[in-house]
Each structure stands twice: as structure tokens, then as C-alpha cells.
């Protein structure tokens, strides 16, 4: 179980990345984190993977606990070796390396045997990649690169997978493909935190959803409920609603006014 | 013709050594983004250790020299470079210049004006291949460098660490998410650079050179253009650049009498001429992918 | 990039209410600066009478400081140029050639020394500009590579041009002359060197406050960023390289005038390293003050060790083959100091001083508060 409590992050000593975030992900769940640009979604994932220092960011308050492991004080490579894997925003594939090498890097901390096993699994999931193993990853199409980024993350056989906007810049058809893959991975037993701006895609499959706004959780609830919530429909699904909001079925509304 | 062949072999042999040194510059640059100006001093100190122990056993002495340079480089990486984490590449580069000053002052105190013989088993033996007479030491240098370079590239292309190294130099921000420790890569780079430097240093001081003197670090500095010509972020560029300038230097030396209008000792600055010319037309070097603008 | 962060960290420290209050009580900065200038002027005037045997040392200090300012111009813009030795030699030997006479060993044009001085400085600037297609395209570190080549090429060229440089035995320089008045007494040479240095310092201060200075600062913080701000990065880098070369050239001439003779062996990589150490010691971001502080330390300390080394137990006498000579001891100290400074405060001793001052300023108002 992943538990984030009162997490605050500051960049370069000044810019506020997160202003107090609480979030819980149960084992086996698919949890989505929504929010507009600059809301702090990527910052949250960086904090969980403990790579903020590379971006001049620090956790100034709060705690992140994953199955008893204090992630704020655990080195990034230890976190990876325990099976908490992130596929970063913008895919971040190694364009100068071949597809196969990209996959190898994904399994960097795993044994050769495990790598071979995982690679088979990845190529079964993304048959497109198996014809292109020797090709430079920079030459792949955007969709293939996204598949490679997810595949690379799977190489480490994740227990908990963090995906940062995998639908970014993909055609609708490909977004559906990605959604299907994510669901498949989750159903195979991997816990997934899916950061998305594509709310309809994310909510259609999420067990639970959080909405970040300005570094805080403004709204959270089960995926289906959030999808029906007026607030989310108006802001993220592009559907206006004239109906009065129904207080009873509304998810927990935290509100983003200054509270502290 | 035999002359030319002879010169070419000597040139390639020297060039391969330059390539090893240049590779050391490139690896550290790729891993940390800095130019290591203490590389030449490290080479000199490693070679110095070899000369002190060579009377026991040459091979052991070489291993000891390598160990000394590696230990020193490790110390530098862990203590000096690491404590400057977050500072600009420029500042760290200048720090290595300060380090070079300290190490060279030490070396000058130890070696003084002496020329210390390397004590290698090849001596001044010559071998004839067809019409060409070549010092055995040059041939050994060529073979050893080629083997070392080949081993490096196998490691770089095939091993997990090699692949990780290439991944990390491409996307420093993403590599940690794969479990790669950038600090470790930096250590690996400095260690490799130390090994390569001492191997090159040993052969630079064997016949026809008479041994180790303090100017050996300057010879190493002549390899710096090799790295720049090939492109500071290109490993194979370092080797190509090294072979280029080594061959050019030996040819210029061999045909000195035809080049008198360029002044005596021109071959010693030829590498810098080549570097300036290459930079003029290709600021990133022949195989470099980026201008060295990481400040 | 780190410098960017550094300034951000330092900025709030200065503008804390306490520091602001404390600063109000200090004399305004301009007054302080004006006072400093007056003191400096008085010092320059009385130096010949109080310096005694230290006068040559002080003269060297001024001559070298000009070159260090030239180095700082580039370095503070994130450009590491190692070509200083070359440009210094070029300046010195150009002056020697233009002002010198034909003799058995050397050639010369016999121009008026003052004219030769100006022409040499310009010539060095032009050579600097000639390299600008190269230098302005290269970033911080590959500039270091290219200019490193320049030093070795320069040594070679100086070696070839024996009739200009005087070969291995060097070349005696023509004294500076104003009409009939020849400056060959140490006092007169000092006034000339100090005058030129003062002009050079003032002009450097002007440059750093001008558009060029601002542009260079932006370039240091990131070339792409600067380009984004509409700054013509190449042009400003070329300008900086031009000025830097001129400063190096002038410094070379002054060094020659002080010594009376120039030897080509002085203009090797060692000279560049020394200039660099002076710059880093003082702190390149304090263009002039840093240069003076760094140069003073670098030139005075070895001299102290040389003169009073007997009193220090560990030191061997100068020129001895074994043991720690004063020169080696000084080099150790400086090398280590460079490393330490870069680790602790890349902006050098002047920045350390500035930091200390800020800390004092910050601690003072606290005392005030407890009183009220
Ligand atoms: N490296 C950084 N340095 C300084 N501030 C940063 C840095 N990275 C992010 N921020 C700031 O932190 C806040 C949160 O950014 P973050 O990248 O987490 O948002 P996001 O929700 O992922 O946005 P997007 O949907 O655009 O990816 C923003 O205000 C951003 O400007
Ligand atoms: Mg983001």
C-alpha cells in the first residue's frame, strides 16, 4: 500500500510544487491522478520515486510510505530494485540506443534470466516492438515510443507502476490502445498510478481518482463517481451541466481554498 | 616507401596511445560534463610509480601504477568532484586545473630533472617485417592499445553498465528511474580514465623514448586535441582522433626536412593546428553530437 | 547554472528587513566607492616612497592584474579562455618589435614607444577578433580546448620569430617615452604602469555596467536563455573576446616595461595557469577588485616566502634541488587554495568577504531588537 501524507515539495528553494497532498493507493488498484498543467502531478511522481533532487526539488514536509518503506529517505535505485517503477512524462526513451538496449536499461537491476523472461512478456504485449529490436529507439513513431516506455518500465517487473501521462500526444485510437494495455497490466496484478490529463480515458478504468489543483488534492473519490461528478465533467471532460449538483452522490470535496 | 611504411606504423602506434588518453577525457566528460585537466598529471604519476617498481617485476609494476592512478582518481572523484555536486561544469573543470597544479608540483619535486627508465622487457629490440624495421616496443604498444580499446568497446556496447552508461549520458534525468546511480557512473568513468592513462603512459615512456620525465604530462596534453577533434562526447571519435594526430605527428617528424619553413619542432604543435582547423569547421568535432555548451 | 541559484539564495539574505535596516546606517555605496578611489589614488602616488624594495613586486602586481581583469571579462561570462599567455606574449613582443631598433640579433621599426604601445594593443585585439568566428561559436569548455591550442601554437610562433622575440636569450624592451622624457627610473615606470592599469580598471568597470556586461551575464546563465531574450550571443562573445585579448596584450607590454626584458619562455601554459589562479583566488565575478586581490596574493606570497623563508623551518632555500622550495610551497598553497575556493565559494575570496559582510549585517539588527 502506498500512502502519501501531507506532502509538500519546493523547487529551487522557492517554487511550490506540492502544498500538502494526501493520497492512498491500495495494492492491486488502478488509481488515477488528474489535474491541469502545473497542478503538481509530475512532482508527486518524482517525490514517490525520490528523484526530486535532480530537479532541484526537495520534500519540505510530509511522508511517503510504501509497504513500510519510507520513500522520502530511500535511495532511488533501492526504490526501483524493490519494484516501484516509473515511466516518466514525455516517455524519456533513450533515442540513441536500440529498442532492445532500452529494454535492457529498464531491467538494469534485474538478473539476465529475469530480463529474458520479462522481455518475452513485453514483446508479447507489444508485438510491434519485436520487429524493431535492433532499430534506434529515436526512429520509432510516437505511439511506438510510448509502448517502448511502458515496456521498458515492465522490464523491472514492477509491483507498483507509475505512469506519467502515457496518452500525451497520441491519436485517439492509440489512446485506446494505451488504456487497454494499462488495464491489462493492472489486471495481471500490478498496482498502477496513472497520471493523466485525459480524464475520460483515465476515469473509465480507475478504481479511485484524485484531482490535483495547484499543488493540493481538490477532489477525490471512486473513479465512476468522479466521472459523474459535475465538477469533473465541467473541468476535465468538457461537458457542461445545468443540473444542480446532487450532494449525496458527490465525491468527497476537499476544496482548494486556503485552509491551513 | 619503406620509410613511409615505417612512419605509418610508428604513427599508428603513437596514435593508439593518444586514443587511449583521449578516451579517458571523453569518458569523464560524458559521465560528468567536465574536462579533466588533471588527466596528464595522473598519467605521469602512474608512470612514475611503474618506474619505481619496475626492477621488481615489470608487469607487477604496471599493475601497481594502474592501482595508484585509480586510487588517486577515486579519491579525486569521491572527495573533490562529489563535494562540488551542483556547481557548474566550468567550476569543476577549473578545479581540476588547480588539482593539476598540485599534482604537477609534487611530481616535479619527486622527479626533478631526471629521466627515469621504464625498465620494460622490450628494451631497444627492433623487429623486421618485410622491409620495415620497427622497435618491438612500438608494436607491443599498438597491439596492447588495440586490445584495450576493443575490450573497452565490448564493455561499452554489450555490458549492462556500458548500456547504462550510454543511456545516462543521453538522459541524465531518466536514468535514475531505471535504477542507475549517476554517482556510480562517475566513479566508473574516473577509474577507467586512470587505467587508460597509465597504460598509455607506460608505452609513451618506452623506447624510442628514454623514460619518464615531468614533460610526460605535456605529451599527454597533446592527446587532448584528439578528444576534441573526434568530438568530446564521442568514444570512437577519441580513437579516430588519436590515430589521426599520432600519424600526423610522426609523419611531420619524419619529413621534418621538408617542413623547415614551419619551424623546428613543428610536429609537436601540429596536433593543435589540426584541432583548431577541425573546430573552425565543425565546432562539435568530427563525431560529436553537440557543441560543448554545458556550462 | 549554479551561479544562478547562488544569486537567488544570496538575494533574499540581503533584502531581509534586518539587513536593509543595517545597510541604511552605512554610508551610501557611492560614497564608499568614492572614498576608496581617493585612498587608492593616494596609495598610488606615495607607493614609490614607501614601497622600498617591494616596488618591483607592486609594479608586477599592477601589470598582471590588468591581464587578470581580461581573463575575468570572459570567465565571468562562463567562457574559459586559456589563450591568455599567447595574447600577453603577442602584446609584449609586438611592442618590442614596433618600438625597437634593428640590431645584430633583432629587427625593429623604431616607432615612438607610445604609438607602439597603442598599436600593439590594437593588434592583439585584432588577432583576438580574427579568431572570433571560432571562439564566439564555441561554448565555455570547447573554448578552453581551442584556446589551449593557441598557447602552444603561440609558443611555436614566438620560437620561429627569433628576430622579433630575440630567441632564447629574450629581447630588451625600449623604455616608454613621452617626447624627450624617458621613463627608466622605477618611480616613473610605476606611475605609467599604475596609470594604464587604472584606466584599464575604470574601463572594465564601465564595460561590466554597460549593455555588454548585462548581455554577458545573461550568457553565463545560459546561452539558450540569452538567445531567447533576443541577445546576439555571438556578437557579445566576440566583443568580450576582443576586450579580453586587448587586456592581455596590454598586460604583456606592462610586464615587459617593468622587467625591461621579455623572454619567450615566459609565455607558455604556465603563465595561463598562473593568470587563471590569480583570477580564481580573487573571484572572477568581482571583475576588478577580484583581480587585484587575487593577483596581490599570488605575487606577494611567494615573494614573502622567498625573502623570509629562512624563518620557516620546513622550507629549503630557493633554487635547491631537494626539499620544499619557497616556489614549490607557494604553488602547493595556491593549487590547494584554488580547489578549496571552488568547492566552498566559486566566486573567490571577494565573494567570501561579501558573504562575511552580509552575515555581520544580519547579526547586527538582532542586537538592536533586543535593546528595543
Ligand atoms: N524543475 C522545476 N523547477 C522549478 N519549478 C518546477 C520544476 N518542475 C516543476 N515545477 C513547478 O512545480 C509545479 C508543478 O509542476 P508539475 O510538473 O508537477 O505539474 P504537472 O501537473 O505535472 O503539469 P503537466 O500536466 O503540465 O505535466 C509547477 O508550478 C511547475 O512550474
Ligand atoms: Mg507533468
What does this structure look like?
The complex is a heterotrimer of chains A (260), B (295) and C (372). Chain A is of the alpha/beta class. Chain A contains ten helices and eleven strands. Mean pLDDT of chain A is 89; it is low at 240-249 and 255-260. Chain B is mostly helical and 295 residues long. Chain B has a domain at 16-214. In chain B, helix 1 (2-32) runs parallel beside helix 5 (136-158), helix 5 (136-158) runs antiparallel to helix 7 (182-204) and helix 10 (235-254) packs across helix 11. Chain B is globular and about 60 Å long. Chain C has one domain: ABC transporter involved in vitamin B12 uptake, BtuC (Orthogonal Bundle). Chain C has helices spanning 2-14, 17-25, 29-51, 55-75, 84-99, 113-130, 132-135, 140-160, 162-165, 186-209, 211-220, 223-228, 233-259, 269-282, 287-308, 326-344, 348-371; strands spanning 171-172, 176-178, 181-183, 261-262. In chain C, the strands form two sheets. A two-stranded antiparallel ribbon of chain C has the order 1-4. A two-stranded antiparallel sheet of chain C has the order 2-3. In chain C, helix 2 (17-25) crosses helix 17 and helix 4 (55-75) packs across helix 14 (269-282). The longest helix of chain C has 27 residues, at 233-259. Chain C starts with a helix and ends with a helix. The structure holds adenosine-5'-triphosphate (ATP) and magnesium ion. Magnesium ion binds at residues 41-42, 89 of chain A.
State the gist of this model:
The complex is a heterotrimer of chains A (260), B (295) and C (372). With 295 residues, chain B is mainly alpha-helical. Chain B has eleven helices and two strands.
Rg of chain B, rounded, reads 19 Å
Alpha carbon gap, first and last residue of chain C: 42 Å
H/E series of chain C, N to C?
Answer: HHHHHHHHHEEEHHHHEHHHH
Helix content of chain B: 55-70%
Main β-sheet description of chain B: 2 strands, antiparallel
Amino acid at each position: 500500500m502506498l500512502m502519501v501524507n501531507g506532502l509538500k515539495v519546493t523547487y529551487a528553494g522557492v517554487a511550490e510544487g506540492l502544498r500538502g497532498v494526501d493520497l492512498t493507493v491500495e495494492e492491486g488498484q488502478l488509481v488515477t491522478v488528474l489535474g491541469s498543467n502545473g497542478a503538481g502531478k509530475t512532482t508527486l511522481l518524482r517525490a514517490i520515486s525520490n528523484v526530486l533532487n535532480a530537479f532541484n526539488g526537495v520534500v519540505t514536509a510530509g511522508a511517503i510510505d510504501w509497504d513500510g518503506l519510507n520513500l522520502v529517505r530511500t535511495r532511488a535505485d533501492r526504490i526501483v530494485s524493490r519494484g516501484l517503477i516509473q515511466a516518466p512524462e514525455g516517455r524519456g526513451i533513450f533515442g540513441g540506443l536500440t529498442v532492445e538496449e532500452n529494454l535492457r536499461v529498464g531491467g538494469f537491476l534485474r538478473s539476465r534470466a529475469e530480463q529474458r523472461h520479462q522481455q518475452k512478456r513485453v514483446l508479447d504485449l507489444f508485438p510491434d516492438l519485436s520487429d524493431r529490436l535492433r532499430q534506434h529507439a529515436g526512429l520509432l513513431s510516437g505511439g511506438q515510443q510510448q509502448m517502448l516506455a511502458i515496456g521498458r518500465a515492465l522490464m523491472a517487473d514492477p509491483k507498483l507502476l507509475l505512469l506519467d501521462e502515457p496518452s500525451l500526444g497520441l491519436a485517439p485510437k492509440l489512446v485506446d490502445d494505451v488504456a487497454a494495455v494499462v488495464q491489462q497490466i493492472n489486471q495481471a496484478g500490478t498496482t498502477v498510478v496513472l497520471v493523466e490529463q485525459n480524464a475520460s480515458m483515465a476515469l473509465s478504468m480507475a478504481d479511485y481518482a484524485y484531482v490535483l489543483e495547484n499543488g493540493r488534492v481538490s477532489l477525490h473519490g471512486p473513479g465512476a463517481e468522479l466521472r459523474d461528478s459535475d465538477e469533473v465533467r465541467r473541468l476535465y471532460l468538457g461537458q457542461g451541466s445545468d443540473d444542480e449538483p446532487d450532494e449525496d452522490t458527490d465525491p468527497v470535496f476537499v476544496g482548494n481554498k486556503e485552509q491551513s | 616507401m619503406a620509410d613511409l611504411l615505417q612512419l605509418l606504423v610508428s604513427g599508428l602506434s603513437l596514435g593508439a596511445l593518444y586514443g587511449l588518453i583521449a578516451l579517458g577525457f571523453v569518458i569523464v566528460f560524458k559521465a560528468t560534463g567536465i574536462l579533466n585537466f588533471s588527466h596528464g598529471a595522473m598519467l605521469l604519476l602512474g608512470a612514475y610509480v611503474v618506474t619505481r617498481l619496475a626492477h621488481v617485476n615489470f608487469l607487477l609494476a604496471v599493475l601497481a601504477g594502474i592501482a595508484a592512478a585509480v586510487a588517486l582518481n577515486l579519491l579525486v572523484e569521491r572527495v573533490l568532484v562529489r563535494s562540488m555536486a551542483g556547481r557548474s561544469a566550468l567550476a569543476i573543470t577549473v578545479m581540476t586545473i588547480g588539482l593539476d597544479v598540485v599534482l604537477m608540483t609534487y611530481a616535479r619535486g619527486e622527479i626533478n630533472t631526471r629521466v627515469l627508465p621504464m625498465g620494460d622487457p622490450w628494451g631497444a629490440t627492433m623487429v623486421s617485417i618485410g622491409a620495415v624495421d620497427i622497435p618491438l616496443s612500438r608494436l607491443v604498444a599498438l597491439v596492447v592499445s588495440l586490445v584495450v580499446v576493443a575490450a573497452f568497446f565490448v564493455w561499452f556496447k554489450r555490458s549492462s553498465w556500458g548500456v547504462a552508461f550510454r543511456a545516462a549520458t543521453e538522459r541524465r534525468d531518466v536514468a535514475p528511474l531505471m535504477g542507475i546511480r549517476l554517482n556510480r557512473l562517475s566513479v566508473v568513468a574516473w577509474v577507467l580514465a586512470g587505467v587508460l592513462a597509465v597504460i598509455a603512459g607506460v608505452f609513451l615512456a618506452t623506447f624510442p623514448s628514454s623514460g619518464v620525465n615531468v614533460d610526460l604530462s605535456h605529451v599527454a596534453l597533446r592527446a587532448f586535441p584528439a578528444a576534441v577533434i573526434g568530438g568530446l562526447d564521442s568514444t570512437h571519435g577519441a580513437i579516430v582522433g588519436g590515430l589521426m594526430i599520432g600519424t600526423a605527428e610522426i609523419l611531420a617528424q619524419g619529413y621534418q626536412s621538408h617542413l623547415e619553413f614551419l619551424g623546428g619542432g613543428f610536429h609537436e604543435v601540429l596536433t593543435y593546428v589540426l584541432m583548431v582547423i577541425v573546430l573552425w569547421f565543425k565546432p562539435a568535432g568530427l563525431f560529436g553530437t553537440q557543441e560543448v555548451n554545458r556550462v | 547554472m549554479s551561479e544562478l541559484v547562488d544569486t537567488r539564495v544570496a538575494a533574499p539574505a540581503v533584502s531581509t528587513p534586518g539587513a536593509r535596516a543595517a545597510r541604511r546606517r552605512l554610508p551610501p555605496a557611492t560614497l564608499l566607492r568614492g572614498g576608496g578611489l581617493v585612498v587608492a589614488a593616494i596609495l598610488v602616488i606615495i607607493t614609490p616612497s614607501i614601497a622600498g624594495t617591494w616596488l618591483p613586486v607592486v609594479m608586477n602586481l599592477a601589470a598582471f592584474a590588468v591581464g587578470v581583469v581580461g581573463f575575468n571579462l570572459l570567465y565571468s561570462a562562463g567562457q574559459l579562455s586559456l589563450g591568455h599567455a599567447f595574447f600577453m606574449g603577442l602584446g609584449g613582443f609586438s611592442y618590442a618589435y614596433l618600438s625597437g631598433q634593428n640590431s645584430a640579433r633583432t629587427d625593429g621599426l623604431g616607432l615612438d614607444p607610445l604609438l607602439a604601445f597603442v598599436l600593439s594593443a590594437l593588434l592583439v585585439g585584432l588577432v583576438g577578433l580574427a579568431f572570433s568566428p571560432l571562439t564566439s561559436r564555441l561554448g565555455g569548455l570547447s573554448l578552453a580546448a581551442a584556446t589551449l591550442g593557441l598557447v602552444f601554437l603561440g609558443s611555436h610562433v614566438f620560437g620561429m620569430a627569433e628576430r622579433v622575440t630575440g630567441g632564447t636569450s629574450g629581447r630588451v624592451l625600449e623604455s616608454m617615452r613621452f617626447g624627450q622624457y624617458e621613463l627608466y627610473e622605477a618611480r616613473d615606470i610605476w606611475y605609467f604602469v599604475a596609470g594604464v592599469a587604472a584606466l584599464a580598471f575604470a574601463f572594465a568597470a564601465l564595460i561590466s555596467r554597460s549593455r555588454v556586461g548585462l548581455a554577458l551575464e545573461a550568457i553565463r546563465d545560459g546561452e539558450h536563455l540569452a538567445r531567447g531574450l533576443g541577445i546576439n550571443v555571438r556578437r557579445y562573445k566576440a566583443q568580450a573576446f576582443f576586450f579580453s585579448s586587448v587586456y592581455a596584450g596590454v598586460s604583456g607590454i606592462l610586464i615587459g616595461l617593468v622587467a625591461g626584458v621579455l623572454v619567450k619562455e615566459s609565455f607558455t601554459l604556465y603563465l595561463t595557469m598562473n593568470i587563471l589562479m590569480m583570477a580564481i583566488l580573487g573571484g572572477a565575478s568581482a571583475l576588478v577588485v577580484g583581480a587585484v586581490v587575487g593577483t596581490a596574493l599570488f605575487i606577494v606570497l611567494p615573494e614573502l616566502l622567498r625573502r623570509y623563508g629562512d624563518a620557516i623551518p620546513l622550507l629549503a632555500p630557493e633554487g635547491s634541488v631537494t626539499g620544499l622550495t619557497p616556489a614549490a610551497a607557494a604553488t602547493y598553497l595556491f593549487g590547494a587554495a584554488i580547489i578549496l575556493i571552488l568547492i566552498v565559494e566559486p566566486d573567490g575570496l571577494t565573494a567570501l568577504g561579501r558573504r562575511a559582510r552580509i552575515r555581520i549585517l544580519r547579526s547586527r539588527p538582532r542586537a538592536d531588537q533586543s535593546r528595543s
